[in-house]
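Hey all, quick one. A colleague (J.T.) asked me to put the adenosine-5'-diphosphate job into the tracker so the inputs and the structure tokens live in one place instead of scattered across chat threads. No bug as far as I know, just bookkeeping. Sequence used:
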Amino acid sequence: VELSADVVVIGAGGAGMAAGVSAHQNGATVVILEKMAKVGGNTISAGGAMNAVDEGSETAIKNKDSVALHFKQTYEGGDKKGDEVLVKTLVENAWASVEWLQSMGMKFLPEPFTVTGGLWPRAHKPVDPVGTGFFKTYNAYIEANKGIEVRLNTKAEKLIVENGKVVGVIATGKTGNKITVKANKGVVIASGGFGQNVAMRQEFNKQWPTLDETIKSTNHPGATGDGIMMGREVNAAIVQMENIQLLPLGDPETGSLSGNIETDVEKRIYVNIEGNRFVDEGARRDTMTLALFNQPQKKLWIVVDAHSYPEGTVKNNFNETIDGLVADGRAFKGETVEELAEKIGVPPANLAATVAEFNKHVASKTPDAFGRTLYSVPLDKGPYYAGARVPTVHHTMGGIKIDAETHVIDVNGNVIPGLYAAGEVTGGIHGSNRLGGNALTDITVFGRIAGANAAQGK
Ligand code: ADP
């Protein structure tokens, strides 16, 4: 099969869809190639928190937030290893991206919240569950406008280069058939990360005790690093591959984030199987996960109370009710802290003492022994709930090097003509640790830029 379009996008996750729509808005015809049987990638099952500061707004003033603080926390939160120009691009275009999504009909809750490892209440939560709101929005745009074709079950294999310029993609269809897709203006790689590629994880990991197959991933099965390999074949610079983000929040069986009972950072604690806290639960994601690796069985219990779930029908961030999770044996419930402890096999006296000590600090709002400073309400209102969690591979922060215009940069520091990249496939934005809530911002901001620039051949 021979196809052609102005802009060819590899991957129909959040970055690819943003790029496709943005390219179309800039006058291009678009083909989006997706190797899986459906759109969405990791984005569709992401918790859904999108960091952005509406500078000077009432909310930002109330929360003492600013674009400058978002920059500082992102840059310093990644140990200053991220590219400052890319971080600046991210934070400065974040709110405009929220507004862009809103302009296409996407709805967000009015008040931002603090997502795990997000450090500040600036995460905007879509009204639709998890990441589905993004795709509802993009699909509605695609249906209403001619000129964007999404081809499922179509795996990009190789970039076509002519006279130093990327001019298309060779792909494989469902039956193994070869498909050549010509790009009149540009190709955008938006194929996501490599969280499910154990060999790549093992090859690049330096930070974690191990990332072998005993450590599961939150990622969808297609997150195998294909785009990084395709980029490497055309001499793209591949950067910061050792920066692999884990969360302390994986389902013990599957590694998935579903079943996670925490609703927001302020209202929950983590205890180990002995019933003791071991880390500041408002800390960075890497800090919390490294601490979890050092606990017995590498396992923690999230403990919350009726402040998080005033009714059994209240849902977690993954669209599951707490009653349903308890019925399925994925969460446990006790009218008192001691009863909860019995149910999860944790020494009741320990858990009671841990909760009492925590509540003292909630009352005084003073940093506790772990340095925790984020508090709202005490854990004092039954029923109490607990859910088990283990370390899980979440986001790969290394990948293809880009500039602020999303041009792909080669190993000699030059732009590769015709080639753009956006989203988790890129490297060097988040440094050694990505702030919670910055991924959806990243993919939307850079996806949008990539689509616009590719459409204009800029
Ligand atoms: P991002 O957050 O950067 O958008 P996602 O994981 O959400 O990343 O989306 C990446 C998408 O790219 C997934 O839907 C994945 O299946 C798709 N993909 C990965 N490799 C290929 C490939 N070789 N060809 C086509 N699509 C791919």
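Adding what we noticed when we looked at it: The radius of gyration is 22 Å. The first strand starts at residue 2 and ends at 10.
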